[in-house]
Amino acid sequence: MSDKKTFYITTPIYYPSGKLQLGNTYTTVLADATARYHRLLDEDVFFLTGTDEHGEKIQKKANEAGTSEIEYLDKMIKDIKDLWSLMGISYDKFIRTTDEGHEKAVQKIFQQLLDQGDIYKGQYEGWYSVSDEEYFTESQLAEVYRDENGKMIGGKAPSGHEVEKIQEESYFFKMSKYADWLVDYYKSHPDFVQPHARMNEMLQNFILPGLEDLAVTRTSSNWGVPVPGDERHVIYVWIDALANYITALGYDSADDSLLKKFWPANVQLVGKEIVRFHIIYWPIMLHALGLELPKEIIGHGWLVMKDGKMSKSKGNVIYPEDLTARYGLDAVRYYLLRSMPFGNDGVFSPEDFVSRVNFDLANDLGNLLNRTVAMINKYEDGVIPAFTTGKTDFDEDLDLVVEKQITEYNQHLSSVHTADALEAVWGVVRRANKYIDETEPWVLAKKSGEDEDAKAALQSVLAHLAGALRAVAAMLQPVMTDAPRQMFAQLGLDYPEKGVSLVGLAIDQVPAGTKVVAKGEPIFPRLDVEEEVAYIASLVSKDTKGKGRAVKEAAKQGAKEQEVSEEIQHKDLIEYDDFDKVEILAAKITAAEFVEKSKKLIKFTLDDGSDKPRQILSGIRQWYPEPEVLLGKTVAIVANMAPRKMAGELSEGMILSAEKNGIVTVSVLPEVIEPGSGIE
Q1: TRNA-binding domain: which residues (predicted)?
Q2: N or C: which end of the chain has fewer CB within 10 A?
Q3: Edge-to-edge strands of the sheet including 267-271?
Q4: Which residues are paired to 541 by β-bridges?
């Protein structure tokens, strides 16, 4: 029996009704980086992904394609597996809900819940989205359509998909029976859901108002797992799909050794659009089955375009195959994991992608590697000197920075904060580049022929740079599949088949006498900004069908937008004296928390340069579900607004922010601006 620590991570299982785009890919790349990290800590890792293959939408897609459901699915799953191979996804198992073992286990789960009284038969009448495979109440819809008499005749789900009225016999899961237990579990396990705002949202919107029982079967579609003994019903997709996380480990099968070894899961990753199913229905289902709950469920944000969420209906989709073919896998994986803030949405733009490649990869990292290899060749005949320290005034500081950043890297990556972990890695890269400028190896080289101290200092500098680069390469392994190996090769270091262990990583681990390559090649060539921005922008326009739908949708909104435009044009202009009445100051955010009595408000405490802290309420909770990301940021505030009370709290001003296409971003000022500075 292995004494290794185990680590089990899952992605949601993907619905194969269409081609996966860059936003879908993010979740799996995030899970892969996390799995790779824990393997490099010498842990026993099980990484699960797969596909959710039942439901009415799949049946319709197969009919439209003129094939059977399984023939349609086999082709789609091949495409998904090919994509995961292209993206370097190192999963241990790919589960399909059409797998025989899974279907049998789902039937056993359903029967157990039925036998113990957690499932009952009833009648369902309400609104259903085929695209989402989800039921909605009227209050949960993003938009409601009514006839001239005010009667509801349809609507749109939060996803934007149309809903339809259905009435059918159904089996229901008694979710209401477990509502109090779930609230207590949340309270006793505050880190169960990350970010915390996702849990608060579910409490306020679904649990505290009264958790409704969940319809768990359909009769209008026969593409699914039949209910044992009542085959007219098929088990609704969410009970079927959620069970995959345990059936993949052999739950209720002849061999459940993997379940005993790896359950409960350490981390379950889901997009925020399916958080409700994973932090309400899934915990209740597990509890009813007598199983432990996952240790942590992370509901991450979306990778969105400037005009909103990536969507084929909007025609604003980017596919990972296109980016990878042109820029390489490492650049794409790095961008996804560096640009997505934990818990919040990330905004993809061609300019940002090209900037990340040029500045982070080509300039910062690439130049550090190229300069170091070139100097070792020029000054030490290509041989890395033995590591010593204290030979220059800057050695000790570099040593401390590398040690500190390695610690921060481990803290962040162990909590799946990849953007912060990569910032820690770049802390080493930036410090090492600065170290070159501080120590001036070219000056030390001129003196080294006659000055032994200068020679010792030069050797120390080169050994430090090689050691820092080795540490950087090691830390990049979970994110990049090729660059760490290339960096080791240019430094003349052997790269183990299973990668370089992250256990005990330090700056002084380059063997003395290692010979670097004679001439290092850039591993990240610099991109032509104008050309590559234009190329990436052209990829978005390839989805002409989506563009057409977007144009039609825009036409529907034309009259409304015209009205708004005319309204704006008729707004009164103001004189300078009017504007001069507004006092805008710089203020630093020192605390941020949700207002308990409000679903929209965040309460900020700010340092505005005065002796007294200022409190401002802002209705931006939707865009900042984890407001801690704004701590320490300097923002612009309107300081001379009359104080007013909202939700029982006093607000003393307004934080300025920008809004476009429904996305609100707080206007963050440069750090050099001191709190209390006037803004004109």
Answers
A1: 578-680
A2: N
A3: 93-96, 44-51, 6-10, 267-271, 297-300, 193-194
A4: none
Q: Under a CB-based contact definition with an 8 Å cutoff, are residues 271 and 15 in contact?
A: no
DSSP state of 515: B
Query: What Å distances lie between residue 129 and 16, 26, 137, 225, CA to CA?
Result: 16, 25, 11, 20
Q: Say how many C-beta atoms besides its own lie within 10 A of residue 470's C-beta.
A: 24
- Is 256 in the same domain as 353? no
Q: Are residues 471 and 366 in the same domain?
A: yes
For the domain that residue 623 is a member of, what is the CATH number? 2.40.50.140
How many CA atoms does the CB half-sphere of 214 hold within 13 Å? 24
Structure tokens at 18: 């269409």
CA dihedral (627, 420, 344, 587) positive or negative: positive
- Smallest CA-to-CA distance from 675 within 607, 579, 593, 584 is with 607
> What are the C-alpha distances in Å from 289 to residues 215, 285, 406, 578, 640?
18, 6, 41, 66, 58
Please tell me the distance from the alpha carbon of residue 284 to that of residue 162, in angstroms, as a whole number: 29
pTM across the whole model: 0.78
DSSP 542: T
128 forms beta bridges with 135, 164
Which tokens in the block code for residue 89? Answer: 């996804």
Helix (H) / strand (E) element for 553: namely helix 544-556
Q: How far apart are CA 269 and CA 297, in angstroms?
A: 6
Spatial CB neighbours of 622, under 8 Å, sequence gap ≥ 6:
600, 664
Amino acid letter, 557: Q
Do residues 70 and 146 share a domain?
no
Report helix, strand or coil for 560.
helix
* pLDDT score for 456: 96
Q: Can you state the percent helix, strand and coil of the chain, rounding each to 5?
A: 45, 20, 35
Whether 413 and 478 have beta carbons less than 8 Å apart is answered as yes
Which residues, given as ranges, of the chain have pLDDT below 70? 1-2, 306-315, 541-578, 580, 660-663, 672
Q: Residue 90 in 3-state DSSP?
A: coil
Residue 431 DSSP SS3 = helix
* Token pair of 409 as six digits: 């890297």
In eight-state DSSP terms, residue 627 is G
What crossing angle do the helices spanning 367-380 and 418-439 adopt, rounded to 10°?
40
Q: What is the CATH number of the domain that holds 474?
A: 1.10.730.10
Task: Return d(Cα 537, Cα 530) in angstroms, integer.
Answer: 11
- The Cα–Cα gap between 657 and 650 comes to 20
What domain range includes position 121? 115-218
Q: Residues 486-536: pLDDT tens digits?
A: 999 999 999 999 999 999 999 999 999 999 999 888 999 999 999 999 999
